[in-house]
Amino acid sequence: MTAVDPQQLRTFVTVSRLASFSEAARELGYTQSAVSQQIAALEADLGTALLVRRPVGPTVAGRRLLEHAAPLLVRLEAARADVARLAGAPSARLVLGATPLAVGASLGRALGEVRRAYPQVEPVVRVLAQDVLPAQVATGEVDLALIDGLAAPSDPLPLPEVGPLATLAVDEQPVAVALPVGHPLAGRPGLALADLSAARWLDAPDLTPTAARLRAATGADGFRPATRYRGTDLHGLLALVATGHGLTLLPEPVAVAATGIAHAAIAAPRLVHRTELVHGSLPEGPAALLARLLAEGA
Fold first, then answer.
1. What are the start-end ranges of the E strands in the chain?
2. Confidence band for 7, pLDDT divided at 50, 70 and 90
3. In the prediction, which pLDDT does 2 show?
4. Which of 198, 200, 183, 199 is nearest to 255 (CA)?
């Protein structure tokens, strides 16, 4: 067996995702025959069928290969992007990725200083979910990222391993549970999060800690989602809290500033809302300046 061809692997992932040889060919810019030949060559190399043809879908072996394929392809793209950054000229662009709750006044002030230093640069801020941002930094789709999440005071955020990225905590805030106005726990100090495990919770993985994360943090079962919310719009999430569709955990300053909801501080376990700066190698330029400014403000 020879080394797996990255292009064949990429084609296999695309066919599996689209469940179609013809759609994969269109997306990749190949003929359908070329896609079929690449899949056949990969199957011959690995000595097993990877796709069922009608309907198109992965076999058991194909599903196992998919588990390996995504991180392998990300690491390959990350290596290419990292070397290109080191070998290339200083970049004049600034593309920042950020999770919704990581965008705040300190970022605005730092961007202002970058614009004064580089008046020809038009900064771009992409608000995205936490789980996609490390890979986007590693592969160069964004220059750097601000990622927020729930952590113990001394622990880093549990980010996926996608390459040699640097991380730095730039902000920590206490956490609070967001409640409807009039809730019996509203305003009560020092709640134990585990005591809320049987409550109705909102599942909003693009914005707030998942039920699995809350169970891991407390060691308590429960935290069952009553309503699932997919998206990065904080206002929509708060509207669901206000109308009784479930509780959610937020940075305390965000909960305090929000209108239409109440809140209660969480005292146990000791948890913080942490925001981390994530970046790879940064040649001198606006992205490097932004990274320094955010680090200095930490």
1. 51-52, 57-58, 95-98, 124-127, 144-151, 166-173, 175-180, 191-192, 201-203, 225-228, 248-251, 261-268, 272-279
2. confident
3. 63
4. 183
Confidence of residue 163 (pLDDT cuts 50, 70, 90): confident
Backbone angles phi and psi of 17, in degrees to 5: -65, -40
Look up residue 25 and give its two tokens: 């060919």
Phi and psi at 8, nearest 5°, equal: -65, -40
Short-list 242, 215, 213, CA closest to 148: 213
DSSP 267: E
Rounded to the nearest angstrom, the gap between the alpha carbon of residue 227 and the centroid of all alpha carbons in its chain is 21
Type of residue found at 176: A
Number of neighbouring beta carbons within 10 Å of residue 200: 14
Q: What percent of the chain has pLDDT over 70?
A: 95
List, as one string, the DSSP characters of 146-171: EEEEEE-TT--------SS-EEEEEE
**What's the pLDDT at 4?**
76
Phi, psi dihedrals of residue 147, rounded to the nearest 5° = -125, 130
| 79 confidence band (pLDDT: 50, 70, 90) | confident
